[in-house]
Amino acid sequence: MIFVLFGVSAIVFYLARGFPAAFAPWAQYITFRMKPSQIDAIIKAHGFDQPLYIQYWFWLQDVFHGDWGFSNWANGLPTYNVFASRFPFTVELTIAAVIFTVAIGVPLGILSALKNNTAADHASRIIALTGYSTPSYWFAYILQLVFFYYFYTWGLPNLPSGGVISQGLSGAVPAVTGLPILDGIIAGNLAYTADAFAHVILPAFNLSFISLGYLARIVRASMLEVLKQDYIIMARSKGLSERIVIYRHALRNALIPAMTLTGLFVAGLLGGAIITETVFSWPGVGNVSLRAVFQGDSNFILLYTLVTALIIVASNLIVDVMYVFLDPRIKY
Amino acid sequence: MSALTEQAVVSDTRQSETKAKLAELKYAIYLMRQNPLVLAGSVLVVFFVLLSLIATLVVSPDSASLLNFSRSYCWGSSTFSWTSLEAICPAGTNLPLGTDGFGRSVLDMIILAIPLDLAIAFVIVIIATAFGLAVGSVAGWVGGKFDEVVLRITDIFFAFPGLVLALVFAALFGRTIETLTIAVLLVWWPTYVRLARGQVLVEKEKTYVEALKSLGAHPSRIVLFHVIPNSIYPIIVQMSLDIGGVILTFSALMFLGFSPSPTLPELGNLASDGIGHVFTAPWLIVFPGLTILVIALAFNLVGDGLRDILDPRLRR
What we know:
Chain A is mostly helical.
């Protein structure tokens, strides 16, 4: 696990610092007011005059001291602060997207398993396949077009096309957690909460549309597998109602693989959905990372890839542990 | 005692194998005809491949560079404006899908873009598969240290957040089609290494491999002519499922602004033309995106169906 993080950081470091496309690598650490002697001191302090592998060593030292450098394009704020101020938005979007995915994907999977090889099954398969054949940037604009623009022109209640909160309401409640919906609830501001909720629907649905198909297919496959097991036949022959057999006996075991997949979704989404966040001008880390890439901000890219890699690796671990916890048949 | 050569055994088993394969194939075709979705997907795939072969005959490739700002047929259009140098017209009689910001027919540009996107997707998937087979099968066969190293390297690449590696790579090495292709490849190769490795590990334990080994067949011969052909089905399924994914990723890079030229007819690039005009000229973004969706869906339908057909456990 540690090895993976070192590998990720080394690759990104080599790419981002080894080929300074537009800026010198130390450009991130200096300001306009610095004298040449000060700049030289900074170059020395971070090892920018040394070969790349020694620079990596200097960078590692900085990182372990909690110094991630600065992001010039964000008014020279420390990179860590830029990341930390954006991360809650990504968390909110992730939670909403996962709720959508599970709420639609699991019933869809169950339906298509119970009605195996019927029209309902085929329909669910088409929805699933369409989900992962859809270009997310395109679907995001389609959602905006329909639910914002067309609904607006038809005079229907419409959803906002982007952002986290309406202009007039921004800053209306104190940022306690950083998640707009949660902040609204804590402050007891109903209008703020509702507005934040309206803003999250479209981007969250866009994200979940791509992943719910996978989930539905997994639930379907494991449900079919479980329904063939002996204990289901046993439960049926005991005379239990079909409802209890399916929801009490079958579903619980069928959902274990779905849990794994959901865990991986969470990890992937916490890494910031670059495309969705960009199209919906959602100020999360994915959105900022795209800007950082275009601005040549190697500091942010390094922090961002490292944190997301950590999340992915950690969630793999958690999923493995959960698996043992949920399924007593598995023993390590 | 007759000399049992590898050749003799192989040709013997091969005959019965061919028969079995033929029966398998017949059954697979029967299953495919049972499944209307796969059929629809295959028809669409064939259609798109044929279309991309004749695309340059249908639409002159020069029309991509013929920028027509005359706007003469844009009179009365709601998006018509004298101020910006744009020639966006809605659909008309000789322009079924309207024109883009350069005054080119959107339909023509989509037809021109399909061969490029398909070719890039095929190239990426084939290179990734070849590399994956080469590295993965050796790792699976040899095991030990080499296997461990390969596994750890794929671990690193799996821990990367999706697009980021491709984005960084594309941003650093310039906006050409070649760099973008390499950028997508960088994201895609580990899957195939893992897949090929897993397949070889399974096949390695089977008796026919043991028979070949005892006959003194060279490991490279066993892997190349026996193990890989026997484990090719899951890889083919993965390839057909990935064509769609690769097109999505590649066009997303184009869409996010890594296009080498704004006039390049590529589906993601065409769609990105419409970013500023989503509400005024939706056809700019709707139709190229829809084309990507249909192409990806076609390949996914085929891949999904193939998986069911080739995996006997899923046959019901």
